[in-house]
Automatic annotation (TrEMBL):
Protein name: Putative membrane-bound dehydrogenase-like protein
Region Disordered: start-end pairs: 324-343
Ranges for domain DUF7133: 366-581, 613-719
CDD domains: Auracyanin, SGNH_hydrolase_like_2
Species this chain originates from: Prosthecobacter fusiformis
Amino acid sequence: MKTSFSILFAVLGFAAPLVAQVQFQKGDSIAILGNVLPDRSQHFGWLETMITQANADKDLTFRNLAFSGDEVQTWHRVDNFGTRDEWLAKVKADVIFAFYGNNESFKGYEGLDEFKKNLDTFLKETQAKNFSGKAPPRIVLFSPIALEKLANPSLPPVDEKNTNLQNYTAAMSEVAAANGVTFVDLFAPTVQTASDEPLSLNGLYLNEKGDKVVAEAAFKTLTGEEAPQVNEKLRQAIVEKNWEWHQRYRTVDGYNVYGGRSGLAYAAGVGGFKQNERTPEKPYISNFQVMQQEMTQRDVKTANRDLRVWAIAKGGDLVVKDDNLPPVEKVPTNMPDPKEGKEFNKVPMTGMTFTEEGLIAIPDATEKMKDIQVHSGMKIQLFADEKMFPELVNPVAMQWDTKGRLWVSAWLNYPERTPTSPKGDSLLIFEDTDNDGKADKMTTFADDLNCPTGFQIYKDGVIVMQSPSLVYIADTDGDGKGDKRERILMGLCAADSHHETCYLSYDNGGAIYPSDGVFHRTQVETVNGVVRNTNGAIYRYDINRNELERFTTNATVNPHGKIWDRWGNSYFTDATGNVNTFAEASSCYLPREGGGSAKMNPFWDRPARPSPGNGIISSRHFPEEFQNNFLNCNVIGFQGIWRVKLSQDGSGMKGETVEDLVKADPAVYPTFRPACVSVGLDGALYFCDWSNAIIGHMQHHLRDPNRDHGHGRIYKMTYEGRPLLKPKKIDGESIPNLLELLKEWEDVTRQLAKVELAKHDAKEVAAAAKKWAAALDKSDPEYEHHRLEALWTHQWVDVVDAELLKEVLSSPDARARAAATRVLSYWKDQVPGALDLLRASVNDADPRVRMHGVRALSFYQPTADAEKALEIAYDVLKHPTDYYIDHVFGECRKGLQSVLKTKLLPKDPAALAEYITKTSDADLKGLPDIEPVLIEKLTRPKVAADVRANALTELVKLTGNDRTLEIVKLLQRLDAAGGRLNSTAEEIGKMLVLEIQGHLMRHREGILELATKGTQPPVIRAAYAALMITDSGPDEIWKSTTGKARVYLLEAIALIPSTKASLRAKCQPLLTALLQDGQADAATLKAVLAALPLMSPNQASANFAIAADHLIAGKERNAAAKALMKFPKTNWDAAKAKPVTDSVLAYAKSVPAGDRSKQEYVEIITAAKEMAALQGDAAASILKDLSAVSVDVFIVHTVHEQLRYDTTKLTVKAGKSFEVIFENDDVMPHNFVIVPPGKHMDIGNAAMTMTPDKVDKQGRAYLPAKFEKEIIAATKLLEPGQKEQLKVRAPNQPGDYEFVCTFPGHALIMWGTLTVTK
């Protein structure tokens, strides 16, 4: 089949001879910048080979600096990667090949001027540099190629895109000419006629043939000559050299090589590390030092291969020996060395044994089986380990194929390959051919990989993460080994190998989900534009449509687990905090760049962290109560797999921890680390054991020798007394047989049936699936699920069937309707009347269907139907909502509204009222001034005063009522709120007392009703204050009040504006009478004391004396102290000072130390300290006495993602009480524990072997019982965002005490000093 992509250059005018435009000089270094075109070309090597071959005597050096997704003005790289100019200087660029224009073209005609400006700036600034030290660089500017029009209906149309590309090519030509720069037009020779074979994978990513075609066109323009017949040996040598350079320039773990964690430094046996120490003093050695030495080795290896390239170009050859590599410093472990007879920071590593070399020994798997605790009724057996199969090392991911074989990713070179590693990481295939429960056959599918952290079965091979690409490795000859590789996505980041794509899972409709963690800088070039992301994200990749989108950025510090259940509900697990989310609710539309998902609550309160993987039990081998249970692996503290019962929670799901599936006591088997779990085709559960002493990114050097490279285990778990399933035959089966497998209960079988179906012709599969669905037995209890599988099969092969979709959307089973609505979100552009269908979903009786309807509407954000979509989304507010619906609606509305020119509100009154109550304060401020909005602005707590005042003004205009009446009506509304809006009532009450007296008089009856019949104190107080203003004094209303009402009246005095001071003064006789009577109860006395400072200045001295006397006498001490502090200092009587301080000191000694941080106490002490200052020479001594009964308060925060407190030193006085307010701002749990001098590691190490269920009497985890008497104080283990106040009395003995986080592994570095002074 022909595809539109020209290779007939003659018809485009290329028959005429061209004049050479670039003359290369001997020793030239050519640096290549740009987008996916040159990034991809380095792996084919055609243009470089042609140029090298034509300049064989010039020893040219090529270094590719291109990144998928680059634009002329962007440089999206990991922290401290180096600027574009720094890299051009590093490679000493004499010539620069710059490929731009493709990604910029997606901004269309409107972006042309900006592009030309940016390109002109780049050329001028670059021409002014001298990177080689010889002369300014000669620049060659390459245009983008035309997108190829392929005969693939799943791919988007390219005509409009090619029009943009043509415009941008013309702009580049213009700018190049203006700057005297050589320009190579690659668009013209690739835009017309046809090829018998595709020249690209997707219209953009060139295949090997396409790269050759483009190289030939570029070569002819550059040299004026026809492209030569390429020396294949030379090309392969160039490809090998480029691969070495690629490993250096695009190194894995860049954040540890040159980013933030490169500055972590370690020392042998010390534990912990220093931060921001790239070049520390010995004995410390940093990540930066070692990894830069490795980078130097890669530079030398690349240069060695340059020599071979030059030799072959000249007709010879040479053997690359790499015997000239500079050394790399050997890294010692910061774990203990028992040969030196020392313990690890005074505490032995419980449960650890050691090799003769002083490294931690990984125990024998068979011998340690007895120490693995399994779920009641279940048994466990060793399926495979490193003794059976030495290649099984560090298993990090697992999948099942259509032949019933278990595939495992073995990460031999964890955390990444060194420049000299002789063997790469592997994809291994295990089989149990004799059905004895143990693997007896292993096939290596691929063994020259680097960090294959995630992979998935696809057609006749696998898609595997090979940073920075997703690579499809196919077995084309059926020998069980991968023999063809194709990069299908380029630009995924691996700044931290722990954080790159893990568990590359399918959803029910066939999309797969790559991911990023924190520190990453991904930019993937696609036929629809660049997907660019900073830090963590989970992506959805539609393989058929070759479309990548950001699915969610919520809970993506280090996303590891991604799993779907039988009804299409997704559950994502972030490893760092083991945060587990119901992901469907966090996956509203995200643009290709910018913005992110709002944080969402987890669906399950996990007991501990971190988690490397998750799973779902779907197997008839297990009892009914196991079905659809969520499984969560954990590797610190609790080292095992939790079993979690799932149940519907409104529109979402919730989890409940039940009996643990499997675990080992860290004190007995500390290297047991379940990393991933899966149900096999026989119905048994299988899980991989990472079998490593080290878990964690930061705690140990990247090259710590205790990062094990020799062990790995796979276990099989079964339920006793229940037969295993007979695996279904899938591989090679016919379409009808495969469709029947969609009726199977087991998720793995149905998924693999769809994987196998995808090998067949898509139209045939879709037609057969529809026919199969029509013939299903409607009386079958599973009918609705079977029909849903038919719909998912259509999605898997990308054949849209609107009729079948509508049938499932009308299913009586809400779960099917919800799943179908999700399908519609991805088919909306091909389904007529999609918005009408979504309106039905949004108004469905089931909350989950409504949630999915709103989510689907969010995807209209970049379309012309955004306004209509938002109108429909508002319908969800006509129905009851819950947490998940509110979350999704908020995200959907925010996105859709962002592209509209005016604010759009619900038209339905009930929906409008509900919407307004759910609107954020920021959004509320921008809503139009209609009555419901104005009422909300006036009654919502914490609204800014100017916003509230403006709202009142607009409300008065709108209603035609006077201000006073509207304020009274507002107070009536607030009083009816039952206390929920009392803070607002206080603000509105302040408005009332500022009203004109005459207006207040007009509405006296209504105000009196608020005072006498109101129920909320702020409303009553405001009404009494207004009545005193109305009546020009308190006498009349005073007569009608007693008891509590009189207290409110007294408290209302404070609301009388200062401009009416004379009115306040009229209350003095009433206060005096109450005090002289001596019968005032406590509440009345407090109110009187509070009112005294508000009286006339003439009465201030006398009233001060009254307050002081009450403080001296201890009558309502706190109220008296607060009153005293409000009097002007000029009215203070020094004669009262000593009696006050004597009284307070006597009182303070009676207050328990634990109560001295209470606000009331602090206020009394503060008043006494002020009085002490009036006592002349005695003041210092008295202040010292008062300080002795005061409490110090410290606030300590955790630092995000750095495993440390924000302060490492606190100072207190011996025996003195103090308070610590501990706030956890990190993404993982922490506590704050105060311990004796030198004990932080003793206690921290003892906690290493504790599980989170082992709590003390106060419910605090990770506090070892044997140190109970030594622990001075401790908070609970706080989750992210939580805080706790810790009240402590300092030890009597001075010294350097310590505070520490005792969560397993944290004590090494997360501690500080509490200095206790005399």
